[in-house]
Design goal:
With 347 residues, the chain is α/β, with parallel strands linked by helices. Helix content is 36%, strand content 14%. Strands 8-9-10-11-14 form a five-stranded parallel β-sheet. The longest helix is centred in the middle third of the chain and has 17 residues. It is globular, with a radius of gyration of 19 Å. This is Phosphotriesterase.
């Protein structure tokens, strides 16, 4: 009953309060389409500031600087706030091509005395390397197994979770190939498997069919980002297949204007709507299959830049949950028991 962190194995029951889906360092600038007019080009070159914070609430990628988190000193402060709020474990799902740095994660873990679990695999098609077409299911699986058994990017720092494996609004051939490889790896290792799904698509069941069809344990699959466009019937459809679903956009209450033709294209649910959906699912008997996180992936998610920080779900959302009648025992289930069960490799 253990979990591999970036500093070694720990008992699954020692993880404490867990953020199961975050990014300490990330660079999503390659995903951002070119600005479509002169004023947008000017805005894109700015740094994140109070002056452009309003624009970023409508289009979080209007300023390219918002799409990268890479300042170790800032992240140290932000994670310290999480620790001081009672947090003890963070799962970093940043993958190759978008800023993964296992050595930095290990340094943060040791400096702050918090547990960090690193992911492995490939994100969405738009971030795939140029040779992705040539990679086979077997070679992708072997890459992940190397990260898990020997170390990431030539280090001795091992991955302790699979993902977040990327899928888009449709599942592209190379994304499907990566899903199949992830299923093979999950079957061999027993690790939890995170899957990124498009925020407004509802193709989670297709993802589950692919994974389970290639041997993955449904009880170790988590479908991410189901809390932007909350559809209760869709959530129950997923949960009835025995998988986890993750409410991981707490703190993001954007209206992403489609006219900006950027990465995000639509309305985000509010935090209170997320809490109410969680309460309804707990009441319906699905509480043990829910994960909760912030998915910090933008500068404006951080305290330093006017956001709520990694500690948001503990500092602000837990009291909101209590106000809506979610009990202390259920809160512990959401933040401690469920992520520990998901991450436990069974060894």
């Amino acid at each position: 009953m253990s979990v591999m962190t970036v500093t070694g194995k720990v008992n699954a029951d020692s993880l404490g309060w867990v953020l199961p889906h975050e990014h300490a360092f990330i660079d999503l600038r390659a995903l951002v389409p070119a600005p479509h007019n002169i004023s947008a080009k000017v805005l894109a070159r700015e740094n994140v500031s109070l002056a452009n914070s309003g624009a970023l609430r409508r289009n979080p990628y209007a300023v390219l600087d918002n799409a990268v988190i890479d300042d170790e000193a800032v992240i140290r402060e932000e994670l310290l706030a999480f620790k001081q709020a009672g947090g003890t474990t963070l799962v970093d799902l940043t993958l190759r091509e978008i800023g993964r740095d296992p050595a930095l994660l290990a340094r943060l873990s040791r400096t702050l005395d918090i547990r960090i679990v690193a992911g492995c695999g490939y994100y969405i098609k738009a971030t795939h390397p140029p040779d992705m077409d040539e990679k086979s299911v077997e070679s992708i699986a072997e890459e992940m197994l190397t990260d898990i058994r020997h170390g990431i990017d030539g280090t001795s720092i091992k991955a302790g979770v699979i993902g977040e494996i990327g899928t888009s609004e449709i599942i592209y051939p190379n994304e499907r190939k990566t899903l199949i490889a992830a299923a093979v790896v999950q079957r061999e290792t027993g690790l939890g498997l995170h899957v990124h799904t498009d925020l407004w698509a509802r193709n989670g069941s297709e993802v589950v069919r692919i994974l389970v069809g290639h041997g993955a344990d449904p009880g170790k699959i988590c479908i991410n980002h189901i809390d932007v466009d909350i559809r209760p019937d869709y959530l129950k459809e997923l949960l009835d297949q025995g998988v986890y679903i993750e409410f991981d956009n707490f703190g993001k209450e954007f209206y992403a204007d489609r006219r900006h033709r950027s990465v995000l294209k639509g309305l985000f649910a509010r935090d209170i709507e997320r809490v109410l959906a969680i309460k309804a699912l707990i009441d319906a008997g699905y509480g043990s299959s829910l994960l909760v996180s912030n998915d910090v992936c933008l500068k404006t998610c951080l305290h330093r830049y006017g956001g709520w920080g990694y500690d948001h779900v503990i500092t602000n959302i837990v009291p909101m949950m209590e106000d809506e009648g979610i009990t202390p025992e259920q809160i512990r289930m959401l933040f401690c028991d469920n992520p520990a069960a998901f991450l436990d490799d069974g060894k």
